[in-house]
Specification:
By secondary structure, this protein is an alpha/beta fold. The protein is built from 13 helices and 8 strands. An 8-stranded parallel beta barrel has the order 1-2-3-4-5-6-7-8, surrounded by 7 helices.
Length: 321
């Protein structure tokens, strides 16, 4: 045992050894609920804390996005630490777009030291889609290589290409994303299998609106037995308006929004349209709960965190375990 480890306080040692709540819920067989918190485009900590407290009692963990859509925001690790400080379990997202392997591994260590136990490994949206299109990307390693790196760090205490062995490895429950609706459809399950082989313990999917196509995806997942090797959380998003639904259908790659859902919201306006969007989301969750292999839901209420408690309650998912 190193001097630093032996002299650590009991609280610090307990923090390092604690299993994540999300891991406990998933491995305990409960139907998990995660949501999403987008950090602000400022240094305002109160924005993060306010969002986190809205989600605290209705979720098992809260994703903190990492400069989503390549727009500069407060860092995911900093915002995750803020959530952790008020008793909200974070899932820090980490993208490969902005960091090389040195910075990625350093941030994994830092996240663990701050008590952040969950990490979602992503490639990241290309910078041309954001507000800094002239910025240089990195992509030194991709999301699958990042998964393997995190697995080697946590399970073996080793860095990439280094014989050094850590005396205190990071404690990280690593996950990844998958889009069941992207083309080619048949490749999606093969890609999911690779992520599992590289160390993903949980998967959060793209928003599910087309339940029929998602059911086909899950059928292929079960055929390969992947539902027994990884916990799959199906993504859901409440629709605010028909305009939002059409934008997702037409402008967001790999998004499948059936016309009948758009029509349900299109005949309503304002609060009535939002209420219908919440009803559709709740109906979707209820159907997803009946699908073999779906271990939970990931609610992506884009800048509408206030809707999440009502969705979780109406879906019959309270209280949380």
């Amino acid at each position: 045992m190193s001097k630093a480890t032996s002299s650590a306080t009991p609280q610090a040692r307990s923090l390092r050894g604690r299993q994540s709540n999300l891991q406990r819920v998933l491995e305990g067989g409960a139907f998990a609920v995660t949501a999403e918190c987008g950090p602000p485009r400022s240094a305002d900590a109160d924005v993060v804390i306010r969002k986190g407290l809205l989600l605290k009692k209705c979720t098992d963990a809260v994703n903190v996005t990492d400069n989503q859509t390549a727009i500069v925001r407060m860092s995911s690790i900093a915002a995750s630490a803020l959530l952790h400080s008020v008793g909200v379990e974070p899932v820090a997202q980490m993208v490969c777009r902005d960091r090389n392997r040195i910075a990625l591994q350093s941030d994994v260590l830092g996240a663990s030291a701050l008590g952040i136990r969950n990490l979602l490994c992503l490639s990241g949206d290309h910078q041309k889609f954001g507000n800094q299109p002239q910025g240089k990307n990195v992509y030194d390693i991709d999301s699958m290589q990042l998964l393997r790196t995190v697995a080697d760090m946590t399970e073996k205490g080793r860095f990439i290409g280094d014989d050094f062995v850590m005396d205190t490895p990071p404690r990280i429950y690593a996950g990844a994303a998958e889009n069941p609706f992207a083309d080619p459809f048949e490749y999606r399950v093969l890609r999911l299998e690779k992520k599992v082989e590289h160390g993903a313990k949980f998967i959060q999917t793209q928003c599910v609106f087309n339940l029929e196509k998602f059911a086909k995806f899950m059928q292929l997942v079960r055929k390969k037995g992947l539902h027994k090797r990884v916990h799959i959380l199906a993504g859901v998003t409440p629709i605010k308006s028909a305009g939002m639904a059409r934008y997702m259908r037409d402008k967001v790659a790999g998004m499948d929004v059936p016309e009948e859902l758009i029509a349900r919201v299109a005949k309503l306006k304002g609060e009535e349209a939002r209420a219908e969007g919440i009803r559709i989301c709740v109906e979707t969750i209820r159907k997803l709960r009946k699908m073999d292999g779906v271990a939970g839901v990931h609610i992506m209420a884009i800048e509408w965190e206030e809707a999440v408690p009502a969705i979780v309650e109406q879906a019959g998912l309270l209280p949380r375990p």
